[in-house]
Specification:
Length: 550
Amino acid sequence: MKSREQEYKEIFIAEALEYFDALNRHISTLEKQPDDEQTLAEIFRLLHNMKANSKAIGYLQISDVSHKLETAFSLIRNKELAFSDEVVTVLFDGIDLLGELITNIDSNQEAEPDPVLLRNLDIIVENLSDSAIELAKVQKYNTSKNLSLSDLVYIQIKKLDHLMNLVGELMIDRDRILSISKDMGNEELKTVSSHLYRITEDLQYSVMDARLVNIGSLFNKFPRIVRDIAAAEKKEVDLALIGQNIQIDRNILQIMTDSLLHLVRNAVTHGLETPAEREKKGKPRIGQLTLSAKSDRENVLIELADDGKGMDFKLIKRTAVERHLVTADAAEALTETEVLSFLFEPGFSTAKEVTEFSGRGVGLDVVKNAIDSIGGRLMVKSEKGKGTTFTMQLPTSIAVKGALLFEVDEIFYAIPLIHTEQVIALDKDELHEVGDVMIADLKGEAITVVYLHELLNTDEAEMRLGDKNRLKGQVQNIVVVSYNNRKLGLIVDKLYRQQDIVVKPMSKPLDRIDLYGGVTLLGTGKVCLVLDVPATTRYFMNKRQAQEHA
């Protein structure tokens, strides 16, 4: 395994060599068209980036030469330095020196810059007013240089997406071949299919690995953002970043960008108090915001915590009752976790007035939908006066998902593991009929339970979600799923195993059925429906509300 430092170094070299080639191209254009503003601006940009990148990774010599060249081109742009033949020669030599320094990082040789060349660069930069600059002649060392190509290539994400889809197809066929080889009992076929299994697994992980990026590429944009929002809100905020080295699929990070921005904005605008308010409460003047990432088995957890005023549970309950999301009696019995789940209802807001950022709840449904779309989970915890923490549980890959397989009415289903809390077997007598639903007591937590067959297949007029008599057998297999701070137990007929599945979208017109997130093919060749847990939970809640109103 390569160290993270080695990876950074390789990426820097590949990018620096690209910059070097581009600089040579642009300076040649400039020699023919000295007044080309666009080319000048591009050279300046490349040198500025080279200076910043090399300084960040600790290559100070490259940073120093880039800085001198950047200054020279800045003077040329501002018409303070003429682009004369002598100046052109020195700048070409300076760019050649950059190429030499970059190439020598890789070969572990120390390149000693020509002191006469560095002096010429200093003369150009410092003697602005002197029209007759005396430049020393430099022995050109670059004419016999060998051409070299970088070991790294940049790949468009859509090419990797296509490759991932092909790997997905291959995995489905691989499982099918494995199943056939077991049924036939042919030893040679078994050997070949087990080898195929290993190769496809390696291929899958290699493609997934190629798509990974450091979460820091997103996190490192936030110090500036937080500073700007805090300044606009007249607040003082200290942002701590943790876990920038954690890696995640680039597509997932792309989808999460707006959601994270929204949560950070909300935290500064509504979560953290002004310095004066904080002092009154005995808190430090400076509000603390922590953005952290960590790996959790197959998932990545991104957490945003503030030490602000926390959520006003009474206000959320009152708003939920006013919006007819819950009755006043039922609202009183709700746990804090259940109360917080209202924040994710579409358009839910406790704000007195609608401003640009509005209430703490505005837009949280949008954030939740973005996370749902990639098969992730959004959770929130809050303590009044102490602060709020949002946790996003995200898969490391979109295409391949860990799932639990089961059967209802001889139809195979899969539920993504990211939404699966636990699997339990309960005796029918341990289920209690309360109102129009069944309730199970799991370690002191009352969880609503529903027979999946009843939910998916029964007419509304005949539906009796709380009727135990409709259950088959005495022992019930229950899959406890979690969504939007709520848990729901799904009774299934038979439980199978956990396995990685490749989810394929449903074809038209079936793609309009919300309950299913797609399909996958099992090794036996059977089609397996992938349940969309968010949609199933919403569907159940809507059925209950319809029954209550009836």
